[in-house]
Structures are given as structure tokens and as C-alpha cells.
Amino acid sequence: MTLYQPFLDYAIAYLQERLDIQPYPIPTGFERKEAITGKGKHQEVVVTTSYGFQSHKLRQIRAAHVQGGNSLQVLNFVIFPHLKYDLPFFGADLVTLPGGHLIALDMQPLFRDNLTYQEKYTQPILPIFQSYQKYLPWGGDFPEEAKPFFSPAFLWTRPKETEVVENHVFAAFKDYLQAYLDFVDRAQPVTDSHYLADIQEAQLSYLHYRAEKDPARGMFRRFYGEEWTEEYIHGFLFDLERKLAEVSLVQQ
């Protein structure tokens, strides 16, 4: 069972169709990792595969795909724009556990309370969000501290049936990704120094939150150990701070 492989295949093919994407460096040891979990007839091999790309306007396009048989399927697919653009992040967290599916899909805003920003990046996708409400109803409470990082078009749902994921979630994933790349097409570089500083601060704030609160941390630690997990989170999944530090060293 590889529930989210079609999502990943579609995303990569579509990105290649729309953008001139190049490989994004994946640190050694993170391209693929395996572990064995469970005992006896419940034993499963868990494989985590990483993918990384970049383009002229997008600093990092990356995916972590975890395949653990019937007990675990995860795709975390995130796009981080370059710091000279005020684009939101594209974020898809698609999780399947024995108890059901957890789906989070959004264009996560840099400035949630800025009305001009919301008019530019949230209003155009609200019709997409609303079109899926009857198939993908609201998934219930999520942490208060997370709310500033999500848009009013945050698609958060917990479908019970796998066919809902295969059909409606997949369709929503395609629509959100297409809309995001439309934003990328139109994006112009920011030249105002104060706004550029705000963009960097907003990106770092989001990455700090995600790196510290990554819901996959416990899972990865269980499978691959603490050292690998922390390096994977800070050195690949949410690596902006490291990259900025490298640039600073070079410039000194």
C-alpha cells in the first residue's frame, strides 16, 4: 500500500511541467532510510524517502515520504519561496494511521493579519476551499499556537474512508498546487528593505515553530533514533536557519 505515491508523482511531474526545477541538495544519509517496526506477523519495514528541488523563485521544494505498510503512510510536501518574494508556503501533511486519515492542506501566509496580503493570497483560493467542504469537513480542534500559521483556506479534515483520500483529497491537492504555481508565476521580487526584513522574520518564525513542534519527531525518533531525527529536521526539512548561517560565514 503506497497511498500517497500518486500525490508525489503528480506533484513532481506538474512542477517539471510548470517550472524549470533543479535538484535541491539532500544531506548524505537522508535520501532513504529504513527501519523495522513491530513484532512477528505485525512486523513492517518502514521506508522514509526524501526528495528536494528548487527553482528561480522557490528556495526549497521538498518531500518526506514515509511508507510503513498498512499501519503507516505519510507524505509531507512543502514549498518554501526565496526570501525576496512574499509568497506564502505551500504545505501538505497527509497522514494515514490505523485509526484513520489526517489531512492538512494550505497556502500558509507570511502575514495572516495583513488584509492586503490576505486579499492577494487567500481570497483567490477560498472558492477552492469551499468547493471541498461537503466532501472534506473540518477536522476539529488543532493547537491554538498553530493558528497564526494557517490561512482561512486551511483544509483540515479527518476522512474515515481511504477512497475519499484517493479521490477528493487528491483533487484538492492538485487544485491547491495549481493555484499556488499561478501565484508563483505572477510573483515579483520585493525591493523594499523593511518588507524584505519582515519576510525573512516571518519565514524564520514559521520554520522555528515547525521544527520545534514537528509532529513527526516522535515517529522518526522511534524508527531512526534521536540524532538522525534532529539532523533531518534541522538540516533538511526546515533548513533555512542553517542556510542563512552558511551565507553569513561566506560573507565574513
SSE blueprint:
Blueprint lengths: L4 H14 L3 E2 L8 E6 L6 E11 L3 E10 L5 E9 L7 E9 L2 E9 L6 H7 L4 H6 L23 E3 L4 H25 L6 H20 L4 H8 L1 H12 L2 H12 L1
Antiparallel strand pairs: 1-3, 2-3, 3-4, 4-5, 5-6, 6-7, 7-8
Brief rundown of the structure:
The chain is an alpha+beta fold and 252 residues long.
Structure overview:
The protein is α+β, with helices and mostly antiparallel strands and 252 residues long. It has a single domain, classed as oxygen-dependent coproporphyrinogen oxidase (3-Layer(aba) Sandwich). Helices cover 41% and strands 23% of the residues. The protein has eight helices and eight strands; from the N terminus they run H-E-E-E-E-E-E-E-H-H-E-H-H-H-H-H. Strands 1, 2, 3, 4, 5, 6, 7 and 8 form an eight-stranded antiparallel sheet that branches. The termini are far apart. The model has no long low-confidence stretch (mean pLDDT 92).
Overall pLDDT: 92
Number of strands: 8
SS class? alpha+beta
The CATH class assignment is Alpha Beta
Give the C-alpha Rg. 18 Å
Describe this protein with a few key phrases.
252 residues; alpha+beta; oxygen-dependent coproporphyrinogen oxidase; 8-stranded antiparallel sheet; 8 helices; 41% helix; oxidoreductase; Ferredoxin-dep_bilin_Rdtase
